[in-house]
Design brief:
The chain contains 2 helices and 28 strands. By secondary structure, it is mainly beta. Strands 3-2-1-28 form a 4-stranded antiparallel β-sheet, with no helix packed on it. The protein has a 4-stranded antiparallel β-sheet with strand order 4-5-6-7, with no helix packed on it. Strand 25 (about 345-350) and strand 26 (about 355-360) form a beta hairpin. The longest helix has 11 residues, at about 20-30.
Length: about 400
């Protein structure tokens, strides 16, 4: 594994600090003093062993090594206590059943190593996404291949229990190759923990379920969600900081759809759909990840094929999107990216070039600038942060 870092002279640093208001300088100093463990989920068909761990400090990503050996841990999530990490095992067969798996790990925050606690069937084939509810007591899983979602309660030990909810999606859409059946791609709870939203690529729907955090149950909302333009292929979504707007990235058509979200009733109303690709792009490309910056002023999506991060400004009044720039990820197939907890950096995971590239984020404009740092990791798919202390 290799790493290259940009260097600045002490004189330049002092001059820059003199231009920053004292409160902002203190804030940046506090942010830069925090160290994080960065866990990277991968596909293991080639050279990967499973989950890798890095140390991230002041914008510098330093390899530690393999954290746990496990099959196709393509998506990760961390509990609010930062003691446990959960991963899907993206496979169609587990324990001789037609299902994938979900794994629970204990985190050693001194070494970064992960200890397997247990594995359970995911309830469907090809699990590709998981998240935790706001209480940290449940894991929600999307099974892509079989088009289903499930909820798993967590024990005090961090172990996964038996599923408390399971929903099989039905239907299809217009793309006969990609949408011949339901393909659940994302599930996560609303900021108030009352609803769970699920993006289904195969049915062109963003579904809404009433979520009971006491029973860990899912019940269809009324209405049951919202549809997007046929053939779009909903993939991932993100709430804005207010919890009143939802941004959905559509994989197949490489678009982003903005919804207003009624927090009281869990209903969605489409406001806008824009292209995630730069104007004039010619070629094949599919959209992948989406995130809203901490300030709520900017939104980011990744494009595989164009191999870029698209940056959008969010209108403060209407919450619609305006393109700012498209930045090359300096690699191939940016399946995932993550903003660090301070919002000062973006890490892009280029799956097909086996690297992670670090960008600095201009908090005023939202624009991205490569820091010059690239680290090697085989088939990176997902990035999550855990504070070291």
């Amino acid at each position: 594994m290799t790493a290259t870092f940009c260097k600045y002279s002490a004189v330049t640093a002092c001059l820059l600090m003199s231009l920053v208001p004292m409160t902002q300088a203190k804030s940046k100093s506090k942010a830069s003093s925090t160290s994080y463990l960065v866990y990277v989920g991968t596909y293991t068909e080639h050279d990967s062993k499973g989950i890798y761990v890095y140390r991230f400090h002041a914008g510098r990503l330093t390899p530690i090594g393999p954290a746990a050996e496990t099959f196709n841990p393509s998506f990760l999530a961390v509990g609010p206590s930062h003691r446990f990490l959960y991963a899907v095992n993206e496979t169609d067969t587990f324990q001789k059943q037609k299902t994938g798996a979900v794994s629970a790990f204990a985190i050693d925050r001194k070494s970064g190593r992960l200890t397997l606690l247990n594995q359970v069937p995911s309830g469907g084939a090809g699990p590709c996404f998981l998240s935790l509810d706001r209480t940290g007591k449940y894991v929600l899983v999307a099974n892509y291949s079989s088009g289903s979602v499930a909820v798993f309660p967590l024990q005090a030990s961090g172990r996964l229990g038996k599923a408390s909810a399971f929903v099989q999606h039905t239907g299809h859409s217009v793309n006969l190759e990609r949408q011949e059946a339901p393909h659940a791609h994302d599930i996560a709870v609303s900021p108030d923990n009352r609803y769970a939203l699920a993006a289904d690529l195969g049915t062109d729907k963003l579904l809404v379920y009433r979520f009971d955090p006491k029973a860990g149950s899912l019940a269809p909302n009324d209405p049951p969600g919202a549809s997007v333009e046929p053939g779009s292929g909903p993939r991932h979504f993100a709430f804005d900081p207010s919890g009143r707007f939802v941004y959905l990235v559509n994989e197949i058509k490489s678009t982003v759809t903005t919804f207003s979200y009624n927090r009281a009733h869990g209903t969605l109303r489409e406001l806008q759909t824009v292209s995630a690709l730069r104007r004039g792009f010619i070629g094949e490309s599919t959209a992948a990840e989406i995130a809203v910056g901490r300030s709520g002023k900017f939104l980011y999506t990744s494009n595989r094929g164009e191999d870029s991060i698209a940056v959008f400004a969010i209108d403060p009044a209407r919450h619609t999107l305006k393109s700012v720039e498209h930045v090359p990820t300096l690699g191939k197939e940016p399946r995932n990216f993550a903003l660090d907890p301070t919002g000062a950096y973006l890490l892009a995971a280029n799956q097909n070039s086996d690297n992670i590239v670090v960008f600095s984020v201009n908090r005023r404009t939202g624009k991205l600038t490569p820091t010059g740092q690239v680290v090697e990791v085989p088939s990176p798919v997902c990035i999550v942060f855990v504070p070291e202390k």
